[in-house]
């Protein structure tokens, strides 16, 4: 019999390319992976068939406090009674900008847009206007609007071919240069070749190797200063996660401009571009026009004000690090016991799952399918939220113990001797493999 999920998937694929507006949300591993999510609460989501999952996708990052987090939902409801958006700025716009400038090291002035990629495009426009240069170096994925360089990132996990990406004029692509994370030589080479033409370096941390930022960020700061380029930090994932002020806060390197988006409003669509008074002035007096009808939409700003207040009052970041570490230690132990060539790398609030390229080709698929089958929803980046309590992490590990056992039994262990070993695997709670919980 066709399930509600199958029906939604079929309808969606018929009417929408990818069957989803976000490429990374389109299900890849049916039937185990959910095709449509209908509700969420705390750290759990329920799909159209009523199956429950402990969720680590968290909308691919924005849900940093938890689904239906009361302080945020109440703030949205309250603002809804006053109106969604107006023909003049809401006081909230000023209040949230003030909070951003109080919390973020580089922030002297701030303005709002809706998506991360759009705000990065705004920063690039600002950098070009204030340096009167055209070339841009990009490190990592900075949103589809900015995927312009030959060989650069098209999506978080996908790299473009060595020519201009489809739909991008070659002359525009030629102004964008890609550089690898922590590729100091590549960076120096690009500056040596075209230093006087480089308006900006935009950098998004490589989450798996983020600790290399300790030396790489200072190098970026030094080279951009030497060559008069604007340094832009893409803190779309790292902001309000690695530290409140993102990697600039963690590593103590202050960029000229930065973008924060996921994590700023617990899922409401809001991005902020912020930075030094001098560079930000370029969109007021320097001729760079950046403007959007929805920039000051009040429901998202109300959510942001409430979220930032939670970040100020409570140790959200400490919680993300602690629960991420609890999960990492437990999962690493399970993987070791079963001999699966899968590594968890990076900082605990945003761990990156890295599959050994020399390992079995189907391991990733097999692992994700088994996790979904056992009621755990994962993404390459494991996003912890503030509603994941220690008991949720322990329950996740019980479920993943079953998943890892299934994957090892299917023949994916590095060492064949550990395949099929079952005595030391903890028992997962009954019926959870079916995702037995119902929506509250
Ligand atoms: C590091 C990074 N930069 C930029 C973006 C783009 O943000 P948005 O999808 O809100 O445009 C993403 C999205 O996943 C991201 O991970």
The total count of helices amounts to: 13
Based on the structure, what is the oligomeric state of the protein chains?
Answer: single chain
Rounded radius of gyration (Å): 22 Å
Strand order of the largest sheet: 4-12-11-10-9-5-8
Question: Top keywords for this entry?
Answer:
single chain; 440 residues; alpha/beta; Aspartate Aminotransferase, domain 1; Aspartate Aminotransferase, domain 2; 2 domains; 7-stranded mixed beta sheet; 4-stranded mixed beta sheet; 16 strands; disordered C terminus; binds pyridoxal-5'-phosphate
What does this molecule look like?
With 440 residues, the protein is of the alpha/beta class. The protein has 2 domains: 36-65 and 322-434, Aspartate Aminotransferase, domain 1, CATH 3.90.1150.10; 85-296, 3-Layer(aba) Sandwich (Aspartate Aminotransferase, domain 2), CATH 3.40.640. Helix content is 38%, strand content 15%. The chain contains 13 helices and 16 strands. The strands form 4 sheets. The protein has a 7-stranded mixed β-sheet with strand order 4-12-11-10-9-5-8, sandwiched between helices. Strand 9, helix 7 (213-227) and strand 10 (230-234) form a beta-alpha-beta unit. The longest helix has 23 residues, at 316-338. The protein is globular and about 60 Å long. The two termini are 26 Å apart. The model is unreliable at 419-440 (pLDDT under 50). Residues 60, 115-117, 140-143, 156, 204, 234, 236-237, 261 line the site of pyridoxal-5'-phosphate.
């Amino acid at each position: 019999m066709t399930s509600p999920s199958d029906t939604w998937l079929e309808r969606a694929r018929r009417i929408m390319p990818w069957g989803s507006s976000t490429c990374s949300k389109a299900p890849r591993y049916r039937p185990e992976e959910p095709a449509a999510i209908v509700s969420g609460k705390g750290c759990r989501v329920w799909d159209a068939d009523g199956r429950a999952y402990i969720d680590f996708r968290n909308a691919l990052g924005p849900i940093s406090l938890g689904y239906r987090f009361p302080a945020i939902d109440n703030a949205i409801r309250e603002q809804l009674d006053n109106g969604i958006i107006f023909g003049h700025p809401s006081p909230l716009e000023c209040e949230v900008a003030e909070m951003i400038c109080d919390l973020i090291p580089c922030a002297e002035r701030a303005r709002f847009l809706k998506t991360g990629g759009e705000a990065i495009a705004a920063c690039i426009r600002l950098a070009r206007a204030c340096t009167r240069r055209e070339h841009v170096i990009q490190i990592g994925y900075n949103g589809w609007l900015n995927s312009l360089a030959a060989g650069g990132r098209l999506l978080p996990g996908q790299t473009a071919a060595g020519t201009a990406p489809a739909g991008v004029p070659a002359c525009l692509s030629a102004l964008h240069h890609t550089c690898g994370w922590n590729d100091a030589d590549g960076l120096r080479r690009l500056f040596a070749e075209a230093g006087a033409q480089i308006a900006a370096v935009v950098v998004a941390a490589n989450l798996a190797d983020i600790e290399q930022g300790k030396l790489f960020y200072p190098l970026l700061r030094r080279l951009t200063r030497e060559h008069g380029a604007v340094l832009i930090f893409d803190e779309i994932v790292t902001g309000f996660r690695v530290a409140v002020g993102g990697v600039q806060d963690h590593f103590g390197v202050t960029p000229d401009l930065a973008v924060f988006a996921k994590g700023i409003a617990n899922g409401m669509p809001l991005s902020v571009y912020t930075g030094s008074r001098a560079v930000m002035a370029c969109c007021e007096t320097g001729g760079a026009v950046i403007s959007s009808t929805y920039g000051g939409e009040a429901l998202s700003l109300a959510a942001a004000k409430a979220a930032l207040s939670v970040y100020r009052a409570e140790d959200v970041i400490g919680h993300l690090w602690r629960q991420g570490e609890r999960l990492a230690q437990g999962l690493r132990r399970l993987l070791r016991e079963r001999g699966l060539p899968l590594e968890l790398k990076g900082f605990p609030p945003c761990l990156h799952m890295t599959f050994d390229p020399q390992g079995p080709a189907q391991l990733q698929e097999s692992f994700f399918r088994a996790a979904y089958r056992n009621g755990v929803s994962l993404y390459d980046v494991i996003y912890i939220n503030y509603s994941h309590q220690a008991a949720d992490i322990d329950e996740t590990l019980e479920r993943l113990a079953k998943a890892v056992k299934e994957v090892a039994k299917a023949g994916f262990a590095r060492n064949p001797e550990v395949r099929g070993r079952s005595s030391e695997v903890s028992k997962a709670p009954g019926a959870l493999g079916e995702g037995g919980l119902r929506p509250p």
